[in-house]
Amino acid sequence: MKNEIVPSVLLTVLCVILLSGAYPAVIWAIAQVAPGHGEGITMKDGHGKYYYENIGQKFSDDKYFWSRPSAVGYNAAGSGGSNKGPDNPDYLIQVQGTIDTFMAHNPGINKADIPSDLVTASGSGLDPHISVEGAEIQVARVAKVRGMDRNRLEALVKAHIEGPMWGMGPERVNVLRLNLDLDNTAVK
Fold this sequence. Notes:
Structural class: mainly alpha
Strand content: 5-15%
Helix content: 40-55%
Largest sheet: 3 strands, antiparallel
Mean pLDDT: 87
């Protein structure tokens, strides 16, 4: 029995030291060199209000580009997906409702042309980016509501295209940055 207890106690002590001390210290140190020093990346709008640009924000007004849907209501304290599979009836109803809402606010758009990121939530529910296609498909609506020249708005979208993160993945558009810039430059 002594042969099993001593190694078990030693392994437990080692795991406590590594997982309760060393691992959190390494993660904290990495966060200190990251943008925002582990506190998130903030930006201020023209009215002095602060936003976290690396956390998805809800935009539902037609004069703005819409973000990805969020399974957690854009609440950073509750990050997570819905955990519903792609054939779950409740999930399919939810996605269809999002598609119907999008099509009602964007007349003339074919259902097949809607990028999936505009109707499905990300794994965290807090993705601040949409695909370039997701931004481009909303240009007509935003231009019409704001009375803006469509070409000017397309140029604004192109100016907000970010390259792939670390050279991997697709190009994307940060919705918050785009919408704040839109408010600052467009005719309201």
